[in-house]
């Protein structure tokens, strides 16, 4: 069985002091819920302090992006090697990175390779725009994103990473996909694309998250879907109470 994961994407929120406070509150409120992988992804500057705050608690830390090169003249960027020892996970190709920072399927693929080579676990994001959704292009587009992001990897590498399906129209809008819609794409598109490229056994082992306006109210129904193994949570992960409720609901669903 795939272990469920609740991953919080804090985006560009919280100072270092605030991030430590939030991490401590989360650490304390989800202590002992070992059946769910709990991951928090603060901004780069907060990583050392947050990592220290949650060390040994079972709460893991992730970064929100990284560069693919080992080092060099890339002003402002952070490499996978710099993240080693600080984080276990790294979000790659979030739609906000694709939209505002010109990330492409090609750079996402380079980053996934670099993260794995450094021993980090990528959380690879895919998802269609509102226009693509309305035009009925979701299946073709998202399937293509999955295959492009994972190109050149081995099956063993793929089953060790995480894929997050996040329809852009659902991110930060309060309009989550219905549990059925999310299941359809996570299963019929994302897992199916992994199966086509790497075989059914790899696809069955790979964890697939849904993201986009998840909260303590809708997470139960979402987590009941057979092909949804967790959530990448934005806004609701900034509130310790709602994040903890989502972790606990998930533990109940998987009991
Ligand atoms: P949201 O963000 O939960 O605030 O919609 C999700 C994400 O962007 O990962």
Kindly describe this structure.
- It is a single chain.
- With 255 residues, the protein is of the alpha/beta class.
- The protein has a single domain, classed as Aldolase class I (TIM Barrel, Alpha-Beta Barrel), CATH 3.20.20.70.
- The protein contains twelve helices and eight strands.
- It has helices at residues 16-29, 47-54, 80-83, 95-100, 105-117, 130-134, 138-149, 155-159, 179-198, 200-205, 219-223, 240-253; strands at residues 5-9, 37-41, 59-63, 89-92, 121-126, 162-165, 207-211, 230-233.
- Strands 1-2-3-4-5-6-7-8 form an eight-stranded parallel β-barrel, surrounded by six helices.
- Strand 1, helix 1 (16-29) and strand 2 (37-41) form a beta-alpha-beta unit.
- Helix 1 packs parallel to helix 2.
- The longest helix is centred in the C-terminal third of the chain and has 20 residues, at 179-198.
